[in-house]
Amino acid sequence: MNLYTRKERWKWLLLITSVVILAGTLWFTNSLVRKVAAEERKNVRLWADAVHRKATFVQYTEAFFRQLQNEERKRVELLAHAYNALVQATNEDELSFYLEIISKNTNIPVVVTDASNRITNTKNVDFDSKKVKFLSDSLLAEFSVYQPIKVNLDAKTYILLYYKDSRLFSDLRTVLTDLNQSFLDEVVKNSASVPVMILDSSNKLLASGNIDSLNQADTSRILSMIAHMSDENDPMVVELGEQGKTYIYYLSSGLLTQLRYYPLIQMGIIGLFLLVAYVLFSTARKSEQDQVWVGMSKETAHQLGTPLSSMIAWLELMKMDGVNHPAIEELDKDVKRLETISQRFSKIGSVPKLESVNITSLLYQTIDYLKKRTSKKVTYQINIAEDQNIMVPLNAELFEWVVENLVRNAVDAMGGSGRFTIDMIESPHHIMLDFSDTGKGIPRGKFRTIFKPGYTSKKRGWGLGLTLARRIIRTYHKGNIFVKSSAPDKGTTFRIVLKKP
């Protein structure tokens, strides 16, 4: 099995494994989030039930308070009736009876005045009735909370009976007010880490918890919070005594929110770590590959040097001996070619010198050399005028190597029979060369893989030709080489893009 085929399969296997692990992690975390959310909803529901029961208790106390208020009013009316009857009493028994009714009032503050508000009698008051002769100003306001009861003594004379809440009633009112306030405070405290707002039916803020600096004046913020909280959780409706129907809005706890987003953050951090690790390892691997390339090229140049020197010497001896054979001229060309190849390998790893070269002439020379050394069934076509002078910064020896590799790959792909074509497109800043063959084509999924070292579809070969070509074009000439197009059994076109001087 080809190295890159195995590598591709391993990539897919690792990708599928990563997806399974990621999906399992997300499923487990989401399952945990759902359980925590369910438990939180359960706690909020229990808390809401407690709120409802406490609100019921407050309502009951409120009703009891109103009932007690009505009873006090009836007692004051009874006192008024007693005062009226006391004036009209005809015997001692009636007089004693009504006096007893009046004397048994030990809680309700009562002030009796004449028509001009002169105080004539008091009961259970907290001011000195001997010093205060008239009911006026703040004292009158204090006893005018309830409508005074008018008692007619005769056709022209009457008295007014002023009263206010008893001390017991006032204490009960204070306790009830404190109970309501403590209830609201306890609702906020019991919400724990949950942001909560309590509003009345007019969206007036009654209390809030775990929300920084929120007050009744922040109308726009309150409305925004209501919309946000309503989207996450339905509000709870609770009756709160004098407050009437109130609405409790809340958000999920910070812990639940963190659990919900934790997997995504975790995956992001892991992904970033893997990306950094991949970049570092890729850089290190590329550096190692470069060292291997350089070492292999230098060693190859060194190994070629010794037999090449001998071949040059033998050719010189043959010429000196007067040997005249047509093969000697071609052999001389091949030796020079070997010298060029040796120089090519020696330049790998070092920065080559780029010179302004007529690329048209270079292409014709290279193809002319290769044409004599490939099958006669392969035809070559260069769609560039031979006299066209196009200067490009190149290292001629290395660029010839690229063209040779493309030609050899094309000949192999065509099975030794077909057409190899070179086209050129010129732009203001670039030269684009298209090298086309009529071979078996390259699958689209292999367009990138074919440039990797060791990849080959041939039974014999190292799979280094296109790798060297890409390295020469990209690294040394700052250009680009890629598969422009390819179709099964129709051929392939490689494009090389070079910069103009």
User: What is the radius of gyration?
Assistant: 52 Å
Q: What overall geometry do the principal axes of the alpha carbons give?
A: rod-shaped
Largest sheet: 5 strands, mixed
Look at the helices and sheets and give the structural class.
alpha+beta
The chain-level mean pLDDT equals: 79
N-to-C SSE series? HHEEHEEHEEHEEHHEHEEHEEHEE
- End-to-end gap: 45 Å
* Number of helices, where a helix is a run of at least 4 consecutive DSSP H or I residues: 10
Strand order of the largest sheet: 10-12-13-15-14
Which strand-content bin applies to the residues? 15-25%
Count of extended strands: 15
Q: How many structural domains does the protein architecture include?
A: 3
Low-confidence stretches: none
Percent of residues in helical segments?
40-55%
Walk me through the structure:
The protein is an alpha+beta fold. It folds into 3 domains: 12-168, no CATH class; 188-254, no CATH class; 351-499, Heat Shock Protein 90. Helix content is 55%, strand content 17%. It has a 5-stranded mixed β-sheet with strand order 10-12-13-15-14. Strands 2-1-4-3 form a 4-stranded antiparallel β-sheet, with helices on one face. Strand 7 and strand 8 form a beta hairpin. Helix 8 packs across helix 9. The longest helix is centred in the first third of the chain and has 86 residues, at 3-88. The two termini are 45 Å apart.
